[in-house]
Each structure stands twice: as structure tokens, then as C-alpha cells.
Design brief:
elongated; mainly alpha
């Protein structure tokens, strides 16, 4: 009795089979390749934005509007985050240093930590997440409703009209936010050690001024500017790449927060190494 064996309806080529097997065995490699491709696309977007930013006409009104939306409307979260961060940081350092009887020098450690790391990084992770997700959601909504295609149809450049004001505004906003965060955190830190350990305000601020140099302050501000570029670039890229309607907008917003947070931490490490070596 002859057995009947049905032939497969579709015969895949050897190359397709090998590719599928490799992707099944090496999913991490595919993810790394895609991440490198996205990094290159973000770099191209930044290069185009830099070229468009120096070409007239200059959208000063649009930049000022983005500064208001991204910066001024974030002051509530800036003040609250910086105040509580300064309270916790000063309290922890003062408690640890009191064991060795040197709690009077807490201003030195707190000021350096705030100016060099806490201010720029904490604001990039909190305010930057709000800014980046907002940019991605706004541009993504414009993409799915075909407003970006309409801008192209009218002969305008979407990068010039949409990306340039947001990236320039982030470069201005993040350093300003970091300065306010430094001030709020120092005030809160001085207040908590005054109440808990009776360290006078004058002694706290004198030790801070004697320790912090302009290089410490400047490194934090320069970090904030770089973080602003990273956050705005990731947000704009994710917004321009949105597909799939409102679901795609939500996915782009989530990815913006995750990618920008990891990128800020990586950039902070390399920038810290750079500034310490100078």
C-alpha cells in the first residue's frame, strides 16, 4: 500500500530558511543591529537639524513657545524634585559624617554632589522624561493625522518647522532647569542640617563656596545641554517614526522615556570621565 505524502504548499529558499534560523538563534544580534541602525538615524536627524538651525529664516517665536511649554510648565516638578532630593541627600550625608564627628563639612560634599551630578542628571531623568514623551506624543499625533505630510505638501521642511525649535529649546531649558534645581536643593539641604544637626546656614554655605569651583558648576551645565540634545533628538525621532495610529503614539512615547533615560546615564558616564580628565 503506497503512502501518499503531500508536498508543502510553499517551498522556502535556502537563504530565507537560514535567515529565520539565525534570527531564532540570535535574537540579541538582531536587536543590536536594529539599535545601531536607529542610532545612525538619530545622528542623521541631528545633523540635518544642525544645518537647518543656522539657515534663515529663524523661528524665534516657535523657539520661545517651546521654551515656555517645555521649561516654564515644568517648574513645579523641578522645585518639588530638587527640594526633596536636597533634603534626603543632606540628611544622609550628615548622618553618615556625624559618626566621625565631621558633620560640619557636610556642605562640601552636598554642594559637589548637587552641582556635578545630582542637578543635571536628576533633572534630565525627571523633567527630561516629561519633555521627551511630550515631544514624541505631539509629533506622533501629527504623523498619524497626516499633518507632517501636509507640511511637506505645502513646500515646508518638517525638520526646520518641527524639530529645530524643540531641540534648540531643550538645549536652553535643561541647563536653566539644572540651575534652579541646584538652588532649591542647596536651600533644602542647608535647612535640614540646620534643624537636625544645628549647623548654621553661614557655615554650610561657606564650606560649599570654598569647595565648589567654576569647573564643577560648568561641568553640570554642559552636561545638561548635552542631555537636552539627547532627549529632544530621541523624542523627535520617535515621533517622526510613529506608525499604527494611536497605539503607535503610545508605543513611541514609552520607548522615548526608556531610550532617553538609558542614553542620559550612558552619556553621563562618558562626560564625567571627560571632564575629570581635563
Amino acid at each position: 500500500m503506497n503512502e501518499h505524502i503531500d508536498a508543502p504548499e510553499e517551498v522556502e529558499s535556502l537563504g530565507e530558511v537560514v535567515q529565520q534560523e539565525l534570527e531564532a538563534m540570535l535574537p540579541f544580534t538582531a536587536k543590536v543591529r536594529r539599535a545601531i541602525e536607529q542610532l545612525g538615524e538619530v545622528a542623521v536627524l541631528l545633523a540635518r537639524t544642525a544645518v537647518r538651525a543656522v539657515q534663515p529664516p529663524f523661528s524665534l517665536g516657535a523657539i520661545a513657545y517651546q521654551v515656555e511649554v517645555l521649561g516654564l510648565r515644568s517648574m513645579s516638578i523641578v522645585s518639588l524634585t530638587a527640594l526633596f532630593a536636597g533634603l534626603v541627600l543632606s540628611l544622609q550625608f550628615a548622618f553618615s559624617m556625624a559618626r566621625f564627628g565631621i558633620q560640619h563639612t557636610v556642605g562640601k560634599v552636598v554642594s559637589l554632589s548637587i552641582f556635578r551630578e545630582l542637578g543635571p542628571v536628576l533633572m534630565a531623568l525627571t523633567v527630561g522624561a516629561r519633555i521627551g514623551s511630550g515631544i514624541a506624543a505631539e509629533l506622533g499625533s501629527m504623523k498619524v493625522t497626516e499633518q507632517i505630510d501636509a507640511i511637506r505638501a505645502l513646500g515646508a521642511d518638517p525638520i526646520k518647522k518641527l524639530a529645530v525649535p524643540r531641540i534648540v529649546a531643550c538645549i536652553l531649558v535643561l541647563p536653566a532647569v539644572a540651575i534652579f534645581a541646584d538652588i532649591f536643593a542647596l536651600v533644602a539641604g542647608a535647612a535640614v542640617v540646620k534643624v537636625e544637626y544645628q549647623i548654621p546656614f553661614e557655615q554650610f554655605y561657606r564650606s560649599a563656596i570654598e569647595t565648589v569651583k567654576w569647573d564643577d558648576f560648568g561641568s553640570g551645565i554642559m552636561k545638561s545641554a548635552v542631555f537636552g540634545v539627547i532627549i529632544a533628538a530621541v523624542g523627535c525621532y520617535q515621533g517622526f517614526q510613529v506608525e499604527g495610529g494611536t497605539e503607535g503614539v503610545g508605543r513611541a512615547t514609552t520607548e522615548t522615556v526608556a531610550i532617553s533615560s538609558v542614553a542620559v546615564c550612558l552619556a553621563d558616564f562618558f562626560l564625567t570621565k571627560l571632564f575629570l580628565s581635563l
